[in-house]
Amino acid sequence: MIEWSARLPSVLFYVFGTVLCVFIALGLIQFPKNVEQGGRTHHIGLWRGYLVALMVLAISSFVLPTASQYLSNAKARHRIEAVQARTTAAQQARIDRLLADAHDYNRSLPLDSYLRIGDPAAGNPARGTTTQNRYDQLLSLDGEAVMGGLSIPAIDVQLPILHGTDPDALSDGAAHVYGTALPVGGESTHTVLTSHAGWSGRRLFTDLDRLTIGDSWTVTVAGEKLTYKVVARKVVVPTDLTSLKPQPGRDLMSLVTCTPVGVNSHRLIVTGERVS
């Protein structure tokens, strides 16, 4: 709410000017009469009052709209700033809560949880289950499936990070493999993201095999930016999950795709360790 102290000068000016003009127009305010030579009386003071009234009206017609606009703008600014302040505070509180929940989720994962995911391309629990619904809410700021973003400069790839490995997620971005750590980092965590290679009209992870030791990628989640540097590359059969095992004290992330393109008999795993 705008303080009345800010409004008072303009309001008083408006009231005073309006009352003065009305009184003068009705002749309720009489100005002194001046008597001229020859006995003729001239109402010079009264005419002077009318002139003042006209001046007040003229000034009011210029000042009042400006003052009114100023007050209106000030009120609008105040309301916008108040909404923004509430929104920012609410969003930041929500983000902090999401990050805390994500870290709690990661800590709750058994070290052997990676053994339960099966083929990373088919790692979702049944849709509609309580477990799935809870998972879908993690790192979801506004009920969206997007957790964050993945950027791989060496192969010019930017993809959204999506919940689960259903067909839509695999074809639209980097799909987070359910059962592995959420992409918020932390000691003894190992996040796994997967996507298609050789997908018609979409690059996705097609060029993942071009990454070499020392290349890096970044993930941005809930306003936090995490950078991982490639420390290992490996081609395995779909059932070999040993490369996805969390390692005590290390913050790891693996990018997984099918290989060779078009054959899809094996899985290419590129693993990075967090450097910042």
UniProtKB/TrEMBL annotation:
InterPro entries assigned to the protein according to its UniProt record, in alphabetical order: Sortase, Sortase_C, Sortase_dom-sf
Top-level taxon in the UniProt lineage: Bacteria
Gene3D superfamilies: Sortase
GO MF term set: hydrolase activity
Entry annotation: catalytic residues: H196 (proton donor/acceptor), C258 (acyl-thioester intermediate)
UniProt cross-references to SUPFAM superfamilies, sorted A to Z: Sortase
Keyword Secreted: no
Transmembrane segments: 12-31, 51-71
Record key words, sorted: Hydrolase, Membrane, Transmembrane, Transmembrane helix
Protein name listed in UniProt: Sortase
Species of origin: Cutibacterium granulosum DSM 20700
